[in-house]
């Protein structure tokens, strides 16, 4: 995950402030979306089992319970290691995409350095496929990595790219994806639609982080919303279906309320209080 200037990691998730010297006050778009239930236990178990099965020390550990417990403990962290590695890879690919846009806009960039970082990690294929997509679709960048704010609902976030493609204004979110056994980029989660529609519904966009200056959001009127899956073998852009946008917006607003209520519940005090047995009072006859 990239780190916009006004984003802060807090105990309540990622939050945004209005300027560099202000405290964070609203949750990020991704923090709001994360309130939706997501059961990853099956995948985590699969990752742990696969890691253990591939461990070269498994045969030796089979007859040694202490050693086997150590291998199992290490294997249980496989999902976390995979998630962290995927997040770091995603940051590198997003950084490259941003530098491509900056270069196209004639602004200062570090494209060569970003490309070298991918190459050093064996990930240059992502850059190659991205370049092919960029040229094929004739992407004309307008604003890369633009931070937006919605006061009415209470959230902020950073859009990967605002661009024109085929003469139409597009709000774009890049997702770095792996490749399936057929050599195709893996599908994106439908949650990307919530992310895009929340960006579209912004009311302001950041002008200067240090000064804390903002301007009215200029790109929310009927843009095309694109989720773009960037893989090593291909780049697959997918348009958010205009017919379903309102429902994903309603869902996002409901999740924003969930985030707020959970915060209120956590700050309200202890949910469970100890209680002793009832006091037994003597009856009148006993008295």
Task: Please provide a written account of the structure.
The chain has nine helices and ten strands. It has 287 residues and is α+β, with helices and mostly antiparallel strands. The protein has one domain (7-265): Lambda Exonuclease, Chain A (Alpha-Beta Complex), CATH 3.90.320. It has a seven-stranded mixed beta sheet with strand order 8-7-4-5-6-9-10, with helices on both faces. A three-stranded antiparallel beta sheet has the order 1-2-3. Strand 4 and strand 5 form a beta hairpin. Helix 5 (78-104) runs antiparallel to helix 6 (111-120). The longest helix has 27 residues, at 78-104. The protein is globular, with a radius of gyration of 24 Å. The chain starts with 6 loop residues before the first strand and ends in a 19-residue tail after the last helix. The model has no long low-confidence stretch (mean pLDDT 91). This is PD-(D/E)XK nuclease family protein.
